[in-house]
């Protein structure tokens, strides 16, 4: 259960959401899209087109070639302590490929979308039907969504209930804008909501459904609107992975020279610890994202070299722990990429 | 015997302690009732296998009674009304307006006082984790009552042990949770408190654990015994070491 805290204007979290769905289509999974704001048909029309291997490799290859020509093989004289740190590699093709890459400027072709089976849940179209399950004092909209989801899982055999079905497939569930006013939940409006437990109950039942079936789910929530922080803590507890997106639009960080290469920060609050005592903890916790013309990338946060005349930077204290990311040879290699692939 | 142990975590995940106690008590031959609210059975099973215990076998021979909260919840919510009157779902409080956890307590009591329990040494109740009950709409008082009843039944009457995991944080805004945690702290015989390091995230030291033995409960005027260690979690076990003596540093 991937829980995403939306950025203020929802631009980037929508992008992440679409990536998740697009990856599902390319992998041939089934999709279930639920939303109260945009009609799922429209969401699906706007998915990014997948990049074919050669075009992407070529693009990156150009960049990498330009950089390699300035490759610093000389040993360092002053900052010799950094010599032993691994160089940030530019080309991700040297990594094992996991997932696919997408071109944000192009839309996915309708034929590709039609090639998989998908289900939609648009709240305003479903308001007429009554749920047959026990609502457990849960918000009606949430209850209907759960009902619909459970029906799809049972019918599609994702929970192993149909032994006849030979080919197992994965169901990718995307739920957009949960907890917002459009779902009939007032946790975004007041500090003491009428029913503060609806969202958490919903998440618990959803978690049960996910554990029982071959499915993965991404939820985006306008966390900045939720007044009651206790709910956010409980929700974090109930999710496997929690990622927050903070965009720089409209905030004072937009003009901060330290962040000029990026469009926002990625906060990883929690990573899944399933079937194991440990979880895969990465080296760094400072990740930033940027939206280039064609690509949306998530990278380690790099401080650009301090070429100003002043001795200290303004608001250096804001960047927690970034000091350890000063890479060796930082002049040429500002493109350290660590892709989070879907 | 007859002890109440509280597992507490702050800014980190203390579930490794739950896995430890589960395999510890099963290996010791105790009858265990495990109320697992947060994860599925297969998750615990896979980790327990790494620690050398087979949960499926324990369940089959009656040593382990496993309540899979997620599954019970689904059965309750989506199941048709075919409940027998004598066997309500342990998570009954979800569907009813009364928010007391009586059904859950009955489940615990019945599983630990079953006739075959004499074959095992000492009953144990393990709960992972209590904070989820609050998320599901149980009132804090109801949760505390449930724990109280469990203690009376398991610790006093059956001379067994109770181990409960809760999450907490100093700057938490979840007042109900903090209320429950503070109250439980006062009543615990032993508290194992796993915290993230105060200096922030570190790759080699995953956190520190504070072991508080509440000697003050038994003898008035005595101070609680507090020990602090740091730990690193690996795939099959957890290593503990004194503060500052991590292998990465030496």
What features would you describe in this structure?
Chain B: It comes from Oxyruncus cristatus (sharpbill). Chain B: Pfam families: ELP6 (PF09807). The complex is a heterodimer of chains A (342) and B (250). Chain A has eight helices and eleven strands. Chain A is an alpha/beta fold and 342 residues long. Chain A has a nine-stranded mixed beta sheet, sandwiched between helices. Chain A is globular and about 55 Å long. The relative contact order of chain A is 0.19. The mean pLDDT of chain B is 80. At the A-B interface, helix 7 and helix 8 of A face helix 1, helix 2, helix 4, helix 6 and helix 8 of B.
Helix and strand arrangement:
The complex is a heterodimer of chains A (342) and B (250).
Chain A: E1 2-5, H1 11-27, E2 30-35, H2 40-45, E3 48-50, H3 53-68, E4 102-107, H4 110-114, E5 118-122, H5 123-126, H6 140-156, E6 171-176, H7 198-212, E7 215-221, H8 229-238, E8 241-247, E9 264-270, E10 287-291, E11 296-300
Parallel strand pairs in A: 1-7, 1-8, 2-5, 2-6, 6-7
Antiparallel strand pairs in A: 3-4, 8-9, 9-10, 10-11
Chain B: E1 4-10, H1 15-27, E2 31-36, H2 41-50, H3 55-60, E3 64-68, H4 69-78, H5 102-112, E4 123-128, H6 131-135, H7 140-157, E5 161-167, H8 175-187, E6 190-195, E7 207-213, H9 215-218, E8 225-233, E9 238-241
Parallel strand pairs in B: 1-5, 1-6, 2-3, 2-4, 4-5
Antiparallel strand pairs in B: 6-7, 7-8, 8-9
Helix pairs in contact in B: 5-7, 7-8
Protein name (chain A): Elongator complex protein 4
Keywords (chain A): Cytoplasm, Nucleus, tRNA processing
Family (chain A): Belongs to the ELP4 family.
């Amino acid at each position: 259960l991937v829980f995403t805290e939306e950025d203020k204007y929802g631009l980037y979290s929508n992008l992440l959401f679409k990536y998740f769905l697009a990856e599902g289509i390319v992998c041939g999974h089934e999709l279930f899209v639920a939303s109260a704001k945009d009609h799922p048909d429209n969401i699906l029309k706007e998915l990014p087109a997948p990049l074919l291997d050669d075009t992407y490799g070529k693009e990156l290859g150009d960049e990498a070639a330009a950089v390699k020509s300035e490759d610093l093989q000389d040993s360092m004289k002053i900052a010799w302590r950094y010599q032993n740190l691994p160089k940030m590699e530019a080309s991700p093709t040297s990594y094992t490929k996991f997932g696919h890459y997408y071109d944000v400027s192009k839309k996915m072709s309708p034929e590709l979308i039609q090639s998989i089976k998908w289900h939609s849940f648009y709240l305003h179209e479903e308001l007429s039907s009554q749920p047959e399950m026990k609502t457990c004092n849960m918000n009606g909209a949430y209850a209907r969504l759960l009902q619909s989801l459970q029906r799809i899982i049972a019918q599609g055999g994702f929970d192993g209930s149909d032994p006849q079905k030979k080919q197992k497939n994965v169901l990718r569930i995307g739920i957009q804008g949960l907890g917002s006013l459009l779902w009939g939940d007032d946790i975004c409006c007041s500090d003491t909501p009428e029913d503060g437990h609806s969202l958490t109950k919903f998440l618990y039942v959803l978690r049960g459904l996910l554990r029982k079936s071959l499915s993965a789910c991404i939820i985006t929530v306008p966390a900045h609107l939720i007044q009651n922080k206790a709910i956010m803590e409980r929700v974090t507890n109930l999710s496997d992975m929690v990622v927050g997106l903070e965009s720089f639009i409209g905030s004072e960080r937009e003009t901060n020279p330290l962040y000029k290469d990026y469009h926002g920060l990625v906060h990883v609050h929690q990573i899944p610890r399933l079937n194991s005592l440990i979880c895969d903890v990465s080296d760094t916790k400072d990740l930033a994202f940027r939206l280039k013309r064609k690509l949306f990338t998530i990278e380690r946060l790099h401080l650009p070299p301090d070429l100003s005349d002043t001795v200290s930077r303004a608001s250096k204290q804001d960047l927690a722990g970034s000091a350890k990311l000063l890479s060796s040879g930082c002049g040429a290699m500002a493109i350290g990429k660590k892709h989070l692939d879907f | 015997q007859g002890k109440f142990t509280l597992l507490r975590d702050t800014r980190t995940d203390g579930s490794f302690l739950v896995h430890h106690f589960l395999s510890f008590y099963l290996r010791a031959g105790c009858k265990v009732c495990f109320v697992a609210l947060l994860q599925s059975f297969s998750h615990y099973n896979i980790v327990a296998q790494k620690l050398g215990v087979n949960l499926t076998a324990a369940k089959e021979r009656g040593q382990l009674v496993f309540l899979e909260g997620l599954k019970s919840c689904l059965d309750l919510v989506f199941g048709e009304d075919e409940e027998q009157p004598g066997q309500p779902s342990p998570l009954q409080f979800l569907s009813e307006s009364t928010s007391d956890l009586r059904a859950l307590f009955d489940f615990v009591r019945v599983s630990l006082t079953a006739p075959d329990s004499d074959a095992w040494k000492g009953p144990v109740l393990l709960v992972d984790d209590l904070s989820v009950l609050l998320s599901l709409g149980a009132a804090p008082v109801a949760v505390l009552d449930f724990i109280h009843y469990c203690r009376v039944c398991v610790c006093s009457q059956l001379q067994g042990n109770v181990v409960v995991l809760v999450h907490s944080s100093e700057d938490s805004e979840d007042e109900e949770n903090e209320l429950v945690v503070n109250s439980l702290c006062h009543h615990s015989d032993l508290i194992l408190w796993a915290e993230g390091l105060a200096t922030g995230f570190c790759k080699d030291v995953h956190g520190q654990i504070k072991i508080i033995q509440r000697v003050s409960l038994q003898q008035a005027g005595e101070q609680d015994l507090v020990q602090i260690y740091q730990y690193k979690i690996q795939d099959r076990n957890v290593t503990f070491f004194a503060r500052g003596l991590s292998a990465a540093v030496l």
